[in-house]
Automatic annotation (TrEMBL):
Domain ASCH: 8-109
Residues of the signal peptide: none
Record-given protein name: ASCH domain-containing protein
Taxonomic path: Bacteria, Candidatus Sungiibacteriota
Amino acid sequence: MKHPLQALLIAPIRKMREDVLAGSKQITIRDGHRDYRLGGVMLCCPDKPWCVAADITVVRHTTYGEIVEEEYKADGFLSPQEMIEGMRRFYPYADFDKPATVIRWNNVHGKLVDQYHKRQAKKLSKHQKACCGKGPYKG
């Protein structure tokens, strides 16, 4: 049986979306036990015209208190307390004894990813020309 398309909502925070495109954000912590499956997922932001495809590789049901250091740090938090405070922006009742789901993905792809990498390559090329193509130390 083929499963329906899954979607993970990404907050309308520019840095977070850029980190997904760059491949440096590949994890999210969600409140409650979520019914996600391994396989294809659309990462999207309903408040911005933004959507990419990815593959879910890990779904772990746990509590906030059992989220390990590697997981909360990979999601951008420095400590368990900072994680709880950050999660409360989206989930006001988040606490160490409450259920949570850790979701990991990889293979982010799609038009926005391609455009992001083209912009990064263009910036790098401009930077190389600016710093390496002029001045007394050029090749």
